[in-house]
Fold this protein.
Amino acid sequence: MPRFYFHIHNGNGFARDDEGTDAPDRAAAEALATKGIRSIVAEEALGGMIDLTGRVEIRDAEGHLLTTVRFAEAFELRTSG
Amino acid sequence: MIEKLLLKLRARDAVSDAEAAALRSLIGEVREFPARHTVIRKGEALDQSLLLLDGMMCRYKDLRNGRRQISALHVAGDFLDLHSFTLKRLDHDVMSLTPTRVGIAPHARLRQITEELPHLTRLLWFSTNLDAAMHREWELSLGQRTAVARAAHLLCELHLRLDVVGLARPQGFDLAINQTELAECMGITAVHMNRVLKELRELGLATVRNKEVVIHDLDGLKRLAEFDPTYLYLRQQPL
């Protein structure tokens, strides 16, 4: 399985992923990024703040950017009834 | 071979020479497992308990969708499933996280200890009670601590438990588990774990990298975690 690196850019700055995570393919890596974003935002929401301005860059072992998942893409947003 | 177990028990109560000899003869066979090998499967019939001699293992449960919760980490000197002596099958799996060496304690020999050595029996009973105390602390973390405090708490606990068996350094310890497994201890995802570790690093508390934990500020880490080691019962108390 190829290894993917998930670098996070958001209001808290940049969190570089030095270790990476194995996933079957790029779609699976994107799903991992989406789950990760939801987990981070869920935790922040408990503190009363939701910041969807960040993004996760998915890179391969050589550091090439494969794709970017924006925080806002990880959610279906409803802000009015 | 059982030196780590003796260190763990003797941190709580005296173990006589006869009791140490009984523990030595308890272990019939030693087996080695590679990293990430499921050593005990949930539901299988068991007639032996396993003592971890080297390496790190975990207990976990999972859902059908593959989401896994690691409910305990085990270090050298821990029994992985002393509770299987009375339960005879486990409600969870046990998996190696690193290459490990395990001593096999047949239930028949454990039974003999319960019949002949009451004080040693109480020590083993203590050891399963200690497992339960650690599970309760883990529950508090999962239910109430923030992810960063949860991570800080786990590092404080591991540092102390490894210190008891002589495997910690004042400023850290080896931790050869990956970000995904660490995340599965905390009930978060690997991507989130990366962010949490970055926060611990930026707070100047600890760096987790390259299979090693370096603690920069142990007091600060304990404060963030609200780490109170009382639940590890590290005091001499005659049983």
Summary: The longest strand of chain A covers residues 3-10. The beta strands of chain A are 3-10, 13-15, 21-22, 55-59, 65-70.
